[in-house]
Structure formats: structure tokens, C-alpha cells
What does this fold into?
Amino acid sequence: MKTFTPKPDDLTHEWYVVDATDVVLGRLATQVAILLRGKNKPTYAPHADSGNHVIVINAAKVALTGNKLDKVLYSHSGRPGGLRRDKYADLLERKPERIITAAVRGMLPKNRLTKVQLNRLHVFAGEEHPHTPQKPQVFEIAQVSQQAK
It folds into this structure.
């Protein structure tokens, strides 16, 4: 039995759209990370870039459980004194895209492919997105937050 190794001709990058309305942040991040890595394809290989483009809409309506509204998201600019602290409650109002991007980044492996795969993540706070010409497929996350019911 020979091990299948995908060739560059075998790699395709489909487009998916995910609605984040009332979906728990962790569940959303795991499903998006699976799509970004291409683990939903039969031709998946960990070393090959077989990931998909993922569009996340309604990022402002994502469900945060527990005490995550008090949690702080740290980022550093690389400059001296460039540490930035933002509470999730403030980010949910101003830039909800950063919350989802940071959660998905944590779910991806820490290697060279991470930056390439994260560039295929497109997060939008509202319902509208400019990627309709790519004809993205709808990816449904069935399990929504219990607080939303």
C-alpha cells in the first residue's frame, strides 16, 4: 500500500461562507480551522497547502460563554511599549473580526503554513461580503449557543 501524497495539481481551494450568528466562539473557531487546513477533503496532507477560503459573516453576533466578556486579548506591535490590551466586550462592539481571527489563529498549527492559511480567512462584522463572484458554498454549524434559544 503506497501513501498518497497530493501533487500541486491535486490542490484546490474552494470557498465557504459561515454564519456566526449565535454560534459559540470555540465551536466556530474549530470548524473554521478545519476548513482552512483542508481537513474536510480526502486529499488532505498536513504538509500540503490544500486549505479553503472561509468567509465568516455576522461576527458581531458570535456567542461568548462564561466570563469571556471580561477576558483580555493581548497583541503586540513589535515596538517597545507596543503591548495592547483589549477586553472582549470592547472588541465585540468595535472590531469583532479580531476576536474570531485570534481564536482561529490559536486553533491552527504553529508552522509556516499558518500565515498562508490565515490569509484565506475573511471575517466581516455584518451580513454583507464582497466575495459573491466566487460563489461560496454555505457551511452550516448546527450547534448554536444555549443562551440564544
